[in-house]
Amino acid sequence: MSFSATAFKFKLDTLSDTQESIVSISQWVLFHQKYYKESAKIWLNYITQDSITPAKRLSLLYLCNDVVQQARRKNKPEFINEFNKVLPDALSKNYGNLNPKVDRLLNVWEERKIFTEDEIANMKASLEAEPKPLESIDIAPQLKQINDLFVHLNKLNDINQENLTQMGIQSKTYLYPQDPETLPPAPVYLSKLYMLEKLGNVCINNVEEIKETRMKINSELDSLFNLIIDGTKTDDSKIANINEKIQKAKETIRDVNLTSMEAGSDDDDFPGYLSDSEEEEETKKRRLSQTPSGGSTPSKRVAFSEDVEVFEDPDENKEESVSVDVMSLLSKLVD
């Protein structure tokens, strides 16, 4: 198989912690010597993924170990130099309770002079450094269940991948041997076949659980889809309601403007009214003008109102009639 990033990633996906799996991929990497830089870079990008478990990272370090040790034996120092550049970053990731095994591997490299003392010290400093805290990620309540299911699914896939890899290796060895003469004696062969059968049943159980988890995710996605559709319908209803109010407001504004324009042309036809303070002031002036001064007779003023009736004093009319009669008699006497 020719070298490519996709091919190498696929091999890293199938990597297990067995010696056979590690040696097989290590030989493939060393065979493609001119791609040593690409190999180290792809390996680093793969091992530093957050989804990679500590156990898988340890297997990847064992792969690196086989590559650099074989490179030393085969006089291919470029692999050692290139992996030396990326190892500190790879060792800065979380290895959990597997740190002692990683530290033991570094001690082996130091003892066998694979890397210099300074290079090993730099690697150990990265391993012992406190891992950077993960940034907290806010997950919406509606997505929490789906997120939990996907986390569970990823774990199941990691476990199943290791089992499938192991089953593939064992099947190739005991079910499809290239040379039947290499098969072990019958009792051992039967034991291996029984183990292979058990491993196959485990893989089936793993795949069934993965399938069940996928169905749960699909159900949650359907519920989420229905929730979104219902929400969009509610949004449409709200928009229609708001538009109706906006249209009503526009019509009311137009009616008020028309009414104001008509009212402005008829302002002169309406009588004016005094305010309460002006009316009180006018009343005071009338009282002052009606007060007797120097024997003069106060003038009569009448304030008209729709609810006011005017009554004339009958005695006042009678007095005026008597005065007229006396003057008539006096004029006759003179004549």
UniProtKB/TrEMBL annotation:
Compositionally biased residues, Polar residues: 289-299
Gene Ontology annotations of biological process type: mRNA 3'-end processing
Stretches the record annotates as Disordered: 259-323
One Pfam family, short name: CID
PROSITE patterns reported for this sequence: CID
Natural source organism: Candida albicans P78048
SMART domains (alphabetical): RPR (SM00582)
InterPro entries: CID_dom, ENTH_VHS, Rtt103-like_CID
Gene3D superfamilies: 1.25.40.90
Name of protein: CID domain-containing protein
Highest taxon of the lineage: Eukaryota
CID domain ranges (all copies): 1-131
Single GO term (MF): RNA polymerase II C-terminal domain binding
Start-end of Acidic residues biased regions: 264-281, 306-318
